What we know:
Elements (H helix, E strand, L loop, with lengths): L1 H13 L2 H21 L4 H10 L3 H5 L3 E7 L4 H14 L4 E3 L7 H10 L10 E6 L5 H4 L7 E4 L7 H4 L2 H12 L6 E5 L14 E6 L26 E7 L2 E5 L12 E9 L4 E5 L2 E5 L4 H17 L3 H9 L7 E7 L2 E7 L3 H11 L5 E7 L25 E8 L3 H10 L7 E3 L3 H9 L5 E6 L1 H13 L8
EC number: 6.3.5.13
InterPro entries: Folylpolyglutamate_synth_CS, Lipid_II_synth_MurT, Mur-like_cat_sf, Mur_ligase_cen, MurT_C
Family: Belongs to the MurCDEF family. MurT subfamily.
Amino acid sequence: MVLKSFTILKVVFKIKFNTFLSVISSKVILKLSKFLFKGGSNFPGKVALKLDKNILETVAKDYNVILITGTNGKTTTTSMIYNMIKDSGNEVITNGTGANMLPGITACFIENYRFKSYKNNKYAVIEVDEANLTFITDYISPKIITITNLFRDQLDRYGEVYTTLKKILDGVYKTPNSTLVLNGDESLLGDLDLKNPIVYYGFNCSVDENKKIDINADAKFCKKCKAPYSYNYLTYNHLGSFYCESCGYSRPNLDYSVDKLVELTPSGSLVWINDHEYYINQPGIYNIYNGLCALSIAKTLGIEHSVIFNSLKSQSSSFGRQEILDIDGKEVKIILVKNPAGFDQAITTITLDERQVNLAFILNDNYADGRDVSWIWDVNFESLNVLNIDKIMVSGIRLYDMAIRLKTSGLPEDKFRLCENNEDLLNEISSCDSSVVYVLATYTAMINFRKYLHSKGHIKKLW
Length: 463
């Protein structure tokens, strides 16, 4: 006990007292939050930053940091990278709960901080909110920064995609030695005026025969001359092999590419990447992008092919991202949806299912969802009419907005069930005649529904 106290005193003298107090206070609050509230990592981080605004620089200094930002796919990609590094035998931490703003990230590092020297080659795989990247790079010089894509999302926070890009680049400019791993199919990420080494990934094959961009797609016009883009092929929304006939700007050369789509199923995808076959244990084109991004980072870190192969094959769902639950004998899959591009991809994946299915939609308009829900009118709900649908459940703060949108898409009104709260929704799910239920929910709706399911014993691990 005396030796332990002496060790702590030595630490206090090595670091500033307010830093020491910041770490201790945050650790105590973290433990209390987990015990009392089954989670909560933002408030402890806020307390730590209040006591020492530079605390992140101290607690993150011994890590090789990998930052993942962008509109869609951050949480899943973060999980994939984390698993690959862990499976390679390296020590690694992550903010797996999705607390991706400065306080949550600070709390993640503090939770894993120890008052002693660290061994070399420790990694931190950190998901970062697009607008918060610039706050993180004030204190951290990451080894790698990846940007997954840029879509319209939470317009009241970010504005259009060009504003989102500027927010991200404000953070990147501060760390010119970080390697950037970028989606080459994202036209906004080509030909950047940056000093950083850049690795690009993307598709070198078409998903279908479509070469015409949808009227509701994002970033349709050349970033150089504002002429409309042309495409050799599109993957989804505005992503694909783009080029400008007016000024010649085109997609950069890819370092890592999907060269062939062998099979797409509701469970996962079999693909060829750089002359090797991989099974990605998450469905949909958007999850192929996530897997390709994770692979590109793993290759950049020198992780062996066999580790990457096995990790992608066994990748489990992150909470609320294609998460599958058993509720009273029903196969319930929860899918986070938050913008037109992601929602369309979720719908496309669901339409691969030839079974009779039930659909549940939960739409909220809290701050974390975006107050403006007009974006649902840009989602292609009409394509759901190909499904064999048993029941359509609608819930959330804005359930009537969602119900009207679904009605105008041509879905049968007699199958609608309006659920005023989570209890009503769970009862409707339990009483479904067929066993397959897809729950498509915005962020706070997903969080709240999972908490309710946890309280009823349907989810064991909340975070």
